[in-house]
Amino acid sequence: MKNLLFAALYICLSMSIYGQPEFPLQPKNHFIGIQPLITVTPYDAFYNTVEINILPFVYEGILSQRVGFKVFPILNYQINPEKENTFSHTGFGLSLPLYLNEREKILPYSGLFGGPHLSYTYNQTELYNSFTYAAELGYNFLIKEKYAFVLDIQYGRTLLFNSTIGKSLPHIGMHVQFGIWL
Predict the structure, then answer these.
(1) Most CB atoms within 10 A, among 2, 23, 40, 101?
(2) pTM (2 decimals)?
(3) What are the C-alpha distances in Å from 10 to residues 15, 19, 22, 96?
(4) What is the CATH classification number for the domain harbouring 173?
């Protein structure tokens, strides 16, 4: 009787294991990562000013098989030995990367990309707005179909403006991102 019970249990477990449906893999459409930003502003009155973004998060979503959108917040903490350390810039950045290679159905983006970049910040210490428009070129290194390491370079212009000033300055930026595709 005992052997019959074990045989029935073994058969039931075997059938339940082999009878499990295989779930299709879900597409990886959301990149969540860390993008440490350190800003050195050569046109600042104090040349030794360094700003660190204390909200170093980045999100990239999928618009199509080749085009994505990337957003990140900017909340800079200014370090300057000649002035009091304080929060300086608040704002956001937006990029629309166009990938050279079309992504596969469930895999995230990878490879070479280029596209426009826009960012807006408000400088609370100097009381001016800044608007940056640039071309962005980069590479998304996909690691084990889930993790990513992204490098990109930006070149463009930054407009500084308020009621008394209006300047157009060159912009060169380099971003490094680490994250996971979900």
Answers:
(1) 101
(2) 0.81
(3) 9, 14, 22, 55
(4) 2.40.160.20
